[in-house]
Amino acid sequence: MRSGRRAEGAGWLGAIVFSSCLFLMLLTGCAQQPQRYVTDVLNAMTPVKDQGKAQTCWVYAMLAAIETEHIMKGDSVNLSAAYVEKMLEQEPDVPKSHRGMGITLIEMIHKYGVTQYDAMPTVDTPLPRFTFMYGMEYTMQEFARSVCAPDEYVPLTSSARYPYYQEVELDVPDNWTHARFLNVPMDTLLSRTERAVRQGHGVCWESKEHSMAVVGLAHDDEGQLYFIMKNSWGDHPPYGGLDYLSFNTFRSKTLAVCMPRETFFEK
Prior knowledge:
Elements: H1 2-28, E1 38-42, H2 57-72, H3 81-88, H4 102-112, E2 131-133, E3 136-138, H5 140-147, E4 153-157, E5 166-169, E6 180-183, H6 186-198, E7 203-206, E8 211-219, E9 225-230, E10 242-246, H7 247-253, E11 256-260, H8 261-265
Parallel strand pairs: 4-6
Antiparallel strand pairs: 1-8, 2-3, 4-11, 5-6, 7-8, 7-11, 8-9, 9-10
Helix pairs in contact: 2-4, 4-5
């Protein structure tokens, strides 16, 4: 009987300890916490948007890069991804998924134009005939030329399969317009991307799975370096719609980068 009571008491005590630990975990958030980053550079940007179920992250990423570039120069544009998504319906070669690349966005806006976000915030908004900026009226194509020249951005890649410093066509389904990319060593691509961000420029980054705009630089407690990425999945926690891409992941995952041509070739 004594041993039975001791066992019974031990079980009762164990239950109390377990319940107390569970309560403390909930109270103090002992579950896995978001990683802490220290911001070194954070460039100006428009509000984070949400691509929803569409597979058009490349549209949002490249437009975000163009927006940051304009803000850096003292201008202000907030561009409509929905307008571009609607225009894609006219493209006979576009995949059913509507996937593409940053340079595809440049080609699309110079073919169909672009408009302000407020003029067409969703694909269900009626197509506007004109867009307005600072009291001026523009056609969609005129407005596109005012925010981005056809050759303003250079598409870049890094692959040992091809000769460096030559233009190559990336053989991936997302490159359905058969755009050509300047192939450079990864060290060069990484350092030029970092330099562009430090100077406040807009940059579009792409892997085989996703595209985001690069808007800043950060490091963690161990000194590891990261690019701060503007995502297109809404302004959700833990970082308000931003994400962090380590330099190591950049090296292993980068498919392409699109940045202002003058910035890349600057000495």
